[in-house]
Amino acid sequence: MKLLITRPVVVTGDGGTRSFAPGLTVEVDAATADQILAQQAGTAVEPVANAEAPATPRRRKSADAET
User: Fold this and answer.
1) Does the pLDDT at position 41 exceed 60?
2) How many CA atoms lie within 13 Å of 19's alpha carbon, on the beta-carbon side?
3) pTM above 0.90, yes or no
4) Is 20 exposed, middle or buried (0-12, 13-18, 19+ CB in 10 A)?
5) Could you write out the three-class secondary structure of 15-27?
6) What's residue 53's pLDDT?
């Protein structure tokens, strides 16, 4: 399962101890994913259909209108 780490987490499993820093996107096995999700230290990453287009359009700021 692919997860986006949202806060620091240390996970202990059969493979030893692993630590993850916020901002990482990691591919982990189901047991490790369950531990990370249970600690609310990560979220599941969904595949993006079109990676170049933002999910929501950017709002125009007043500074944008002046230029």
Assistant:
1) yes
2) 2
3) no
4) buried
5) CEEEEECCCCEEE
6) 54
State mean pLDDT over 14-35. Answer: 87
Element (H, E) at 38: helix 30-38
**Cβ-contact 4, 27 below 8 angstroms:** no
Q: How far apart are CA 41 and CA 5, in angstroms?
A: 6
Report angle CA 10, 22, 35 to the nearest 5 degrees.
40
d(CA 21, CA 32) in angstroms, rounded, equals: 15
The beta strands (E) that lie in the chain are given as 2-5, 9-13, 16-20, 25-27, 42-44
